[in-house]
Amino acid sequence: MISSRLLRAKNRVPKRLFGTTNKDETDRNNKYLAATYDVCDSVISKANGIYVEDVEGHKMLDFHSGYSCTNQGHLHPKILQALYDQTKKLTMASRIFNTDISGEFAQFISETFGYEKMVPMNSGSEACECAVKMARRWGVMSKGIDNDKVTVITTHNCFWGRTIVSMSGCSDPNRYSNFGPLVPGFDMVPFNDPDALEEKLKENPNICAFMIEPIQGAAGVIVPDDDYLRRVQALCRKYNVLFICDEVQAGLGRTGYMLAHQFEEGVRPDIVTLAKATTGGVLPLSLALADSHIIDLLGKGQHGTTYGGNALGCAVAKAAIEVIIEEDLCERSRVNGAFFHNLLESLDTPVIKLVRGRGLWYSLVIDRPGQAKEFSEVLAKNGLACRNTDGESLRFAPPLTIEREQLEQAAEIILKTCKEFE
Ligand SMILES: *Cc1c(COP(=O)(O)O)cnc(C)c1O
Protein backbone atom coordinates (compact mmCIF):
# COMPACT_ATOMS: atom_id res chain seq x y z
CA MET A 1 0.00 0.00 0.00
CA ILE A 2 1.26 3.45 -0.89
CA SER A 3 1.14 5.93 1.99
CA SER A 4 -0.63 9.23 1.51
CA ARG A 5 2.66 11.03 1.90
CA LEU A 6 4.13 9.11 -0.98
CA LEU A 7 1.04 9.72 -3.05
CA ARG A 8 1.35 13.46 -2.50
CA ALA A 9 5.00 13.22 -3.47
CA LYS A 10 4.01 11.23 -6.52
CA ASN A 11 1.73 14.00 -7.71
CA ARG A 12 4.40 16.59 -7.16
CA VAL A 13 7.43 14.88 -8.73
CA PRO A 14 6.21 11.70 -10.34
CA LYS A 15 9.27 10.91 -12.42
CA ARG A 16 11.85 11.31 -9.71
CA LEU A 17 10.15 8.86 -7.38
CA PHE A 18 8.61 6.46 -9.83
CA GLY A 19 11.17 5.94 -12.51
CA THR A 20 12.95 8.10 -14.98
CA THR A 21 15.11 7.21 -17.96
CA ASN A 22 18.63 8.00 -19.06
CA LYS A 23 17.12 9.83 -22.02
CA ASP A 24 14.75 11.98 -19.91
CA GLU A 25 17.48 12.96 -17.50
CA THR A 26 19.96 13.65 -20.29
CA ASP A 27 17.43 15.97 -21.93
CA ARG A 28 16.81 17.78 -18.67
CA ASN A 29 20.54 18.17 -18.05
CA ASN A 30 21.07 19.44 -21.58
CA LYS A 31 18.35 21.98 -21.03
CA TYR A 32 19.59 23.43 -17.75
CA LEU A 33 23.33 22.76 -17.46
CA ALA A 34 26.19 24.38 -19.33
CA ALA A 35 27.36 21.93 -21.97
CA THR A 36 30.99 22.01 -20.85
CA TYR A 37 31.44 18.24 -20.64
CA ASP A 38 31.05 15.58 -23.28
CA VAL A 39 28.76 13.44 -21.13
CA CYS A 40 28.01 9.72 -21.31
CA ASP A 41 24.56 8.36 -22.14
CA SER A 42 24.23 6.76 -18.68
CA VAL A 43 22.82 9.00 -15.97
CA ILE A 44 24.14 7.82 -12.63
CA SER A 45 21.94 7.64 -9.57
CA LYS A 46 23.81 5.32 -7.22
CA ALA A 47 27.23 3.91 -6.50
CA ASN A 48 28.82 1.51 -4.06
CA GLY A 49 32.34 0.17 -3.86
CA ILE A 50 33.49 -0.41 -7.42
CA TYR A 51 30.04 -0.14 -9.00
CA VAL A 52 27.92 2.68 -10.37
CA GLU A 53 24.29 2.33 -11.33
CA ASP A 54 22.26 4.41 -13.76
CA VAL A 55 18.70 5.66 -13.33
CA GLU A 56 17.37 2.64 -15.21
CA GLY A 57 19.01 0.24 -12.76
CA HIS A 58 21.87 -0.78 -15.05
CA LYS A 59 24.87 -1.60 -12.87
CA MET A 60 28.42 -1.08 -14.20
CA LEU A 61 31.96 -1.62 -13.01
CA ASP A 62 33.24 1.90 -12.44
CA PHE A 63 36.39 2.27 -14.50
CA HIS A 64 36.31 6.03 -14.27
CA SER A 65 36.13 6.64 -10.50
CA GLY A 66 35.08 10.27 -10.92
CA TYR A 67 38.42 11.07 -12.60
CA SER A 68 40.24 9.12 -9.87
CA CYS A 69 38.42 10.71 -6.95
CA THR A 70 37.03 7.45 -5.62
CA ASN A 71 40.31 5.52 -5.40
CA GLN A 72 39.04 4.14 -2.06
CA GLY A 73 35.79 2.90 -3.66
CA HIS A 74 32.42 4.66 -3.53
CA LEU A 75 30.83 5.27 -0.12
CA HIS A 76 33.70 3.81 1.86
CA PRO A 77 32.30 3.09 5.36
CA LYS A 78 35.24 4.55 7.25
CA ILE A 79 35.12 7.77 5.25
CA LEU A 80 31.35 8.06 5.68
CA GLN A 81 31.72 7.44 9.41
CA ALA A 82 34.22 10.30 9.65
CA LEU A 83 31.78 12.45 7.70
CA TYR A 84 28.88 11.67 10.06
CA ASP A 85 30.95 12.02 13.23
CA GLN A 86 32.44 15.37 12.25
CA THR A 87 29.13 16.66 10.89
CA LYS A 88 27.60 16.24 14.33
CA LYS A 89 30.38 18.31 15.93
CA LEU A 90 31.58 21.09 13.62
CA THR A 91 31.65 21.50 9.86
CA MET A 92 32.92 25.01 9.24
CA ALA A 93 34.60 27.70 11.25
CA SER A 94 36.67 29.45 8.53
CA ARG A 95 40.41 29.85 8.75
CA ILE A 96 40.24 32.76 11.16
CA PHE A 97 39.85 29.97 13.71
CA ASN A 98 42.08 27.00 14.08
CA THR A 99 40.00 23.97 14.97
CA ASP A 100 40.72 20.84 16.96
CA ILE A 101 40.91 18.92 13.68
CA SER A 102 42.90 21.35 11.47
CA GLY A 103 46.19 20.91 13.36
CA GLU A 104 45.74 17.16 13.68
CA PHE A 105 45.05 16.89 9.95
CA ALA A 106 47.99 19.10 8.95
CA GLN A 107 50.34 17.10 11.17
CA PHE A 108 49.05 13.86 9.68
CA ILE A 109 49.62 15.20 6.15
CA SER A 110 53.11 16.39 7.03
CA GLU A 111 54.04 13.02 8.53
CA THR A 112 52.47 11.06 5.69
CA PHE A 113 53.97 12.99 2.78
CA GLY A 114 57.15 14.35 4.33
CA TYR A 115 56.64 18.08 3.74
CA GLU A 116 56.80 20.58 6.56
CA LYS A 117 53.59 22.43 5.82
CA MET A 118 50.47 22.52 3.69
CA VAL A 119 47.93 24.94 2.22
CA PRO A 120 44.39 23.48 2.22
CA MET A 121 42.02 24.46 -0.61
CA ASN A 122 39.12 23.02 -2.61
CA SER A 123 39.97 22.21 -6.21
CA GLY A 124 43.01 20.88 -8.03
CA SER A 125 43.27 24.05 -10.10
CA GLU A 126 43.46 26.11 -6.94
CA ALA A 127 46.21 23.89 -5.55
CA CYS A 128 48.21 24.23 -8.77
CA GLU A 129 47.64 27.96 -8.86
CA CYS A 130 48.84 28.11 -5.25
CA ALA A 131 51.98 26.19 -6.30
CA VAL A 132 52.54 28.73 -9.07
CA LYS A 133 52.01 31.61 -6.64
CA MET A 134 54.49 30.14 -4.18
CA ALA A 135 57.00 29.52 -6.95
CA ARG A 136 56.67 33.06 -8.32
CA ARG A 137 56.99 34.44 -4.83
CA TRP A 138 60.11 32.35 -4.27
CA GLY A 139 61.46 33.46 -7.66
CA VAL A 140 61.05 37.12 -6.81
CA MET A 141 61.87 37.07 -3.10
CA SER A 142 64.49 34.31 -2.84
CA LYS A 143 66.02 34.00 -6.28
CA GLY A 144 65.81 37.72 -7.03
CA ILE A 145 64.04 37.54 -10.39
CA ASP A 146 62.41 40.73 -11.65
CA ASN A 147 58.74 40.71 -10.60
CA ASP A 148 57.52 41.27 -14.17
CA LYS A 149 59.69 38.57 -15.71
CA VAL A 150 59.26 35.59 -13.42
CA THR A 151 58.34 32.53 -15.48
CA VAL A 152 56.98 29.04 -14.81
CA ILE A 153 57.66 26.27 -17.31
CA THR A 154 54.96 23.66 -17.94
CA THR A 155 54.75 20.88 -20.53
CA HIS A 156 52.89 20.39 -23.79
CA ASN A 157 49.58 18.58 -23.30
CA CYS A 158 49.63 19.15 -19.56
CA PHE A 159 46.39 19.56 -17.65
CA TRP A 160 46.01 21.48 -14.43
CA GLY A 161 42.50 22.84 -14.65
CA ARG A 162 40.33 25.29 -16.52
CA THR A 163 40.69 28.56 -14.67
CA ILE A 164 42.22 31.51 -16.49
CA VAL A 165 45.62 30.87 -14.97
CA SER A 166 45.62 27.14 -15.66
CA MET A 167 44.50 27.56 -19.25
CA SER A 168 47.27 30.15 -19.65
CA GLY A 169 49.83 27.47 -18.86
CA CYS A 170 48.53 24.81 -21.24
CA SER A 171 48.98 23.96 -24.93
CA ASP A 172 45.39 23.14 -25.92
CA PRO A 173 43.81 25.93 -28.03
CA ASN A 174 40.34 24.52 -27.34
CA ARG A 175 40.91 25.31 -23.68
CA TYR A 176 42.32 28.83 -24.04
CA SER A 177 41.06 30.37 -27.31
CA ASN A 178 38.63 33.30 -27.33
CA PHE A 179 38.71 33.84 -23.60
CA GLY A 180 40.57 37.13 -23.78
CA PRO A 181 44.13 37.79 -22.70
CA LEU A 182 46.04 34.98 -21.05
CA VAL A 183 48.09 35.28 -17.88
CA PRO A 184 51.72 35.99 -18.78
CA GLY A 185 54.71 34.29 -17.18
CA PHE A 186 54.35 30.80 -18.66
CA ASP A 187 56.48 28.94 -21.13
CA MET A 188 56.37 25.32 -22.23
CA VAL A 189 58.59 22.38 -23.20
CA PRO A 190 57.68 18.92 -24.53
CA PHE A 191 56.95 16.31 -21.84
CA ASN A 192 59.58 13.62 -21.31
CA ASP A 193 62.32 15.73 -22.89
CA PRO A 194 64.93 16.82 -20.34
CA ASP A 195 67.18 18.25 -23.06
CA ALA A 196 64.47 20.68 -24.13
CA LEU A 197 64.06 21.71 -20.51
CA GLU A 198 67.78 22.31 -20.16
CA GLU A 199 67.77 24.49 -23.29
CA LYS A 200 65.06 26.67 -21.76
CA LEU A 201 66.79 26.84 -18.40
CA LYS A 202 70.03 27.89 -20.10
CA GLU A 203 68.49 30.64 -22.18
CA ASN A 204 66.12 32.15 -19.59
CA PRO A 205 67.45 33.14 -16.14
CA ASN A 206 63.95 34.26 -15.06
CA ILE A 207 62.52 30.79 -14.58
CA CYS A 208 61.33 30.11 -11.04
CA ALA A 209 59.79 26.66 -11.49
CA PHE A 210 59.11 23.67 -13.68
CA MET A 211 55.70 22.10 -13.12
CA ILE A 212 54.70 18.66 -14.39
CA GLU A 213 52.36 15.79 -13.87
CA PRO A 214 54.62 12.79 -13.10
CA ILE A 215 52.40 10.85 -15.52
CA GLN A 216 50.24 12.98 -17.80
CA GLY A 217 46.61 12.10 -17.12
CA ALA A 218 44.30 14.08 -19.38
CA ALA A 219 46.80 13.67 -22.23
CA GLY A 220 46.06 9.93 -22.09
CA VAL A 221 48.13 8.38 -19.26
CA ILE A 222 51.48 9.26 -20.79
CA VAL A 223 54.23 7.53 -18.81
CA PRO A 224 57.67 9.17 -19.17
CA ASP A 225 61.00 7.37 -19.39
CA ASP A 226 62.14 5.67 -16.19
CA ASP A 227 64.71 8.31 -15.24
CA TYR A 228 62.87 11.39 -16.49
CA LEU A 229 61.89 12.79 -13.10
CA ARG A 230 65.37 12.27 -11.67
CA ARG A 231 66.87 14.13 -14.61
CA VAL A 232 64.32 16.91 -14.27
CA GLN A 233 65.08 17.22 -10.58
CA ALA A 234 68.83 17.37 -11.24
CA LEU A 235 68.28 20.12 -13.82
CA CYS A 236 66.04 22.09 -11.48
CA ARG A 237 68.73 21.96 -8.81
CA LYS A 238 71.50 22.84 -11.25
CA TYR A 239 69.66 25.95 -12.46
CA ASN A 240 68.14 26.86 -9.08
CA VAL A 241 64.55 26.34 -10.14
CA LEU A 242 61.72 24.82 -8.07
CA PHE A 243 60.39 21.43 -9.12
CA ILE A 244 56.59 21.18 -8.82
CA CYS A 245 54.82 17.84 -9.15
CA ASP A 246 51.12 18.03 -9.90
CA GLU A 247 49.89 14.81 -8.27
CA VAL A 248 46.23 15.83 -8.41
CA GLN A 249 45.27 12.82 -10.51
CA ALA A 250 48.35 10.58 -10.44
CA GLY A 251 48.77 10.72 -6.66
CA LEU A 252 47.18 8.82 -3.77
CA GLY A 253 47.80 5.28 -4.94
CA ARG A 254 46.52 5.51 -8.50
CA THR A 255 49.86 4.52 -10.05
CA GLY A 256 50.92 2.09 -7.33
CA TYR A 257 52.60 4.68 -5.11
CA MET A 258 51.29 7.17 -2.58
CA LEU A 259 52.80 9.82 -4.84
CA ALA A 260 53.41 8.85 -8.45
CA HIS A 261 56.91 10.36 -8.49
CA GLN A 262 57.99 7.84 -5.84
CA PHE A 263 58.32 5.34 -8.69
CA GLU A 264 61.73 6.92 -9.23
CA GLU A 265 63.94 6.62 -6.19
CA GLY A 266 65.47 9.80 -4.85
CA VAL A 267 62.90 12.14 -6.35
CA ARG A 268 61.52 14.75 -3.98
CA PRO A 269 59.79 17.71 -5.64
CA ASP A 270 59.86 21.09 -3.89
CA ILE A 271 56.09 21.48 -4.14
CA VAL A 272 53.41 18.79 -4.51
CA THR A 273 49.75 19.38 -5.29
CA LEU A 274 46.97 16.94 -4.38
CA ALA A 275 43.19 16.85 -4.89
CA LYS A 276 40.70 14.39 -6.41
CA ALA A 277 41.11 11.28 -4.16
CA THR A 278 41.96 13.26 -0.99
CA THR A 279 38.44 12.60 0.34
CA GLY A 280 37.53 9.47 -1.60
CA GLY A 281 35.01 11.40 -3.68
CA VAL A 282 33.05 12.73 -0.72
CA LEU A 283 34.02 16.42 -0.68
CA PRO A 284 36.23 18.73 -2.71
CA LEU A 285 39.55 19.21 -0.94
CA SER A 286 42.95 20.05 -2.36
CA LEU A 287 46.38 20.61 -0.88
CA ALA A 288 49.67 22.21 -1.80
CA LEU A 289 52.59 20.76 0.15
CA ALA A 290 56.01 22.34 0.59
CA ASP A 291 58.68 23.07 3.17
CA SER A 292 58.63 26.21 5.30
CA HIS A 293 61.26 28.12 3.32
CA ILE A 294 58.82 28.12 0.38
CA ILE A 295 55.38 28.03 1.96
CA ASP A 296 56.19 30.73 4.52
CA LEU A 297 56.70 33.19 1.65
CA LEU A 298 52.89 33.37 1.57
CA GLY A 299 52.05 35.96 4.19
CA LYS A 300 48.80 36.89 5.86
CA GLY A 301 46.10 37.72 3.33
CA GLN A 302 48.21 36.50 0.43
CA HIS A 303 46.46 33.20 -0.17
CA GLY A 304 43.33 31.49 1.05
CA THR A 305 39.86 30.30 0.25
CA THR A 306 36.80 30.35 2.49
CA TYR A 307 36.19 26.62 2.64
CA GLY A 308 39.89 25.73 2.64
CA GLY A 309 40.72 23.66 5.72
CA ASN A 310 37.12 23.45 6.92
CA ALA A 311 36.65 21.03 9.79
CA LEU A 312 34.52 18.59 7.84
CA GLY A 313 37.01 18.43 5.00
CA CYS A 314 39.92 17.84 7.36
CA ALA A 315 38.16 14.96 9.12
CA VAL A 316 37.02 13.32 5.89
CA ALA A 317 40.36 13.70 4.12
CA LYS A 318 42.26 12.27 7.11
CA ALA A 319 40.01 9.21 7.09
CA ALA A 320 40.24 8.86 3.31
CA ILE A 321 44.03 8.99 3.24
CA GLU A 322 44.18 6.59 6.20
CA VAL A 323 42.12 4.16 4.14
CA ILE A 324 44.75 4.23 1.39
CA ILE A 325 47.40 3.32 3.98
CA GLU A 326 45.41 0.81 6.04
CA GLU A 327 44.10 -1.11 3.07
CA ASP A 328 47.45 -1.15 1.26
CA LEU A 329 45.85 0.44 -1.76
CA CYS A 330 49.22 1.45 -3.25
CA GLU A 331 50.45 -2.13 -3.15
CA ARG A 332 47.14 -3.40 -4.48
CA SER A 333 47.24 -0.87 -7.28
CA ARG A 334 50.78 -1.98 -8.17
CA VAL A 335 50.15 -5.72 -8.03
CA ASN A 336 46.64 -5.80 -9.46
CA GLY A 337 47.64 -3.20 -12.01
CA ALA A 338 50.39 -5.47 -13.34
CA PHE A 339 47.92 -8.36 -13.36
CA PHE A 340 45.39 -6.33 -15.32
CA HIS A 341 48.02 -5.01 -17.72
CA ASN A 342 48.99 -8.59 -18.62
CA LEU A 343 45.36 -9.52 -18.96
CA LEU A 344 44.68 -6.65 -21.37
CA GLU A 345 47.75 -7.44 -23.41
CA SER A 346 46.70 -11.07 -23.71
CA LEU A 347 43.30 -10.21 -25.21
CA ASP A 348 43.16 -11.68 -28.67
CA THR A 349 41.62 -8.98 -30.81
CA PRO A 350 42.86 -6.70 -33.58
CA VAL A 351 40.81 -3.84 -32.13
CA ILE A 352 43.29 -3.16 -29.31
CA LYS A 353 46.30 -1.29 -30.62
CA LEU A 354 48.12 -0.43 -27.44
CA VAL A 355 47.82 -0.56 -23.68
CA ARG A 356 49.87 1.82 -21.58
CA GLY A 357 49.85 2.92 -17.97
CA ARG A 358 51.05 2.23 -14.49
CA GLY A 359 49.31 0.89 -11.39
CA LEU A 360 45.57 0.81 -11.98
CA TRP A 361 45.68 3.62 -14.50
CA TYR A 362 45.50 2.75 -18.16
CA SER A 363 44.99 4.08 -21.58
CA LEU A 364 43.59 1.63 -24.07
CA VAL A 365 44.28 2.74 -27.62
CA ILE A 366 41.96 1.15 -30.16
CA ASP A 367 42.67 0.59 -33.81
CA ARG A 368 39.37 2.22 -34.74
CA PRO A 369 40.17 5.91 -35.23
CA GLY A 370 37.36 8.24 -34.21
CA GLN A 371 35.34 5.49 -32.56
CA ALA A 372 36.58 5.66 -28.98
CA LYS A 373 33.49 7.46 -27.71
CA GLU A 374 31.18 4.96 -29.34
CA PHE A 375 33.40 2.19 -27.93
CA SER A 376 32.95 3.61 -24.43
CA GLU A 377 29.18 3.63 -24.86
CA VAL A 378 29.21 -0.03 -25.88
CA LEU A 379 31.46 -0.80 -22.89
CA ALA A 380 28.87 0.86 -20.66
CA LYS A 381 26.09 -1.18 -22.22
CA ASN A 382 28.18 -4.30 -21.53
CA GLY A 383 28.71 -3.29 -17.90
CA LEU A 384 31.84 -1.15 -17.69
CA ALA A 385 31.67 2.62 -17.23
CA CYS A 386 34.57 4.71 -18.51
CA ARG A 387 35.33 7.57 -20.85
CA ASN A 388 37.29 8.10 -24.01
CA THR A 389 40.23 10.51 -23.80
CA ASP A 390 40.19 11.36 -27.50
CA GLY A 391 39.07 9.75 -30.74
CA GLU A 392 41.11 6.59 -30.34
CA SER A 393 41.85 6.08 -26.67
CA LEU A 394 40.01 5.31 -23.45
CA ARG A 395 41.15 5.90 -19.92
CA PHE A 396 40.67 3.21 -17.26
CA ALA A 397 40.86 4.07 -13.58
CA PRO A 398 38.89 1.64 -11.40
CA PRO A 399 38.74 2.10 -7.62
CA LEU A 400 41.95 0.65 -6.16
CA THR A 401 39.85 -1.65 -3.97
CA ILE A 402 38.94 -3.73 -7.02
CA GLU A 403 39.59 -7.49 -6.76
CA ARG A 404 41.24 -9.72 -9.35
CA GLU A 405 38.01 -11.50 -10.11
CA GLN A 406 36.42 -8.18 -11.00
CA LEU A 407 39.39 -7.26 -13.16
CA GLU A 408 38.92 -10.55 -15.00
CA GLN A 409 35.27 -9.68 -15.43
CA ALA A 410 36.32 -6.27 -16.81
CA ALA A 411 38.72 -7.88 -19.26
CA GLU A 412 35.88 -10.11 -20.49
CA ILE A 413 33.66 -7.08 -21.02
CA ILE A 414 36.45 -5.32 -22.90
CA LEU A 415 37.03 -8.34 -25.11
CA LYS A 416 33.31 -8.72 -25.79
CA THR A 417 33.15 -5.05 -26.76
CA CYS A 418 36.18 -5.41 -29.04
CA LYS A 419 34.44 -8.31 -30.79
CA GLU A 420 31.54 -5.98 -31.56
CA PHE A 421 34.01 -3.67 -33.31
CA GLU A 422 35.87 -6.37 -35.26
C1 LIG B 1 41.91 17.37 -12.48
C2 LIG B 1 43.28 17.93 -12.48
C3 LIG B 1 43.54 19.23 -12.05
C4 LIG B 1 42.44 20.21 -11.74
O1 LIG B 1 41.67 19.81 -10.67
P1 LIG B 1 40.20 20.44 -10.47
O2 LIG B 1 39.77 19.92 -9.14
O3 LIG B 1 39.37 19.95 -11.60
O4 LIG B 1 40.36 21.91 -10.49
C5 LIG B 1 44.85 19.64 -11.95
N1 LIG B 1 45.85 18.81 -12.28
C6 LIG B 1 45.64 17.56 -12.71
C7 LIG B 1 46.80 16.68 -13.05
C8 LIG B 1 44.35 17.07 -12.85
O5 LIG B 1 44.13 15.85 -13.32
Automatic annotation (TrEMBL):
SUPFAM superfamilies: PLP-dependent transferases (SSF53383)
Cofactors named for this entry: pyridoxal 5'-phosphate
Enzyme class: transferase
Gene3D superfamilies hit by this protein: Aspartate Aminotransferase, domain 1, Type I PLP-dependent aspartate aminotransferase-like (Major domain)
Gene Ontology, cellular component aspect: cytoplasm
Pathway: Amino-acid biosynthesis; L-proline biosynthesis; L-glutamate 5-semialdehyde from L-ornithine: step 1/1
Annotated PROSITE patterns: AA_TRANSFER_CLASS_3 (PS00600)
One BP term from GO: L-arginine catabolic process to proline via ornithine
Record flagged with keyword Transferase: yes
UniProt keyword annotation of Transferase present: yes
One term of GO molecular function: ornithine aminotransferase activity
Enzyme Commission no: 2.6.1.13
Record keywords, A-Z: Aminotransferase, Pyridoxal phosphate, Transferase
Reactions catalysed: a 2-oxocarboxylate + L-ornithine = L-glutamate 5-semialdehyde + an L-alpha-amino acid
Family statement: Belongs to the class-III pyridoxal-phosphate-dependent aminotransferase family.
Name of this protein: Ornithine aminotransferase
Native source species: Euplotes crassus
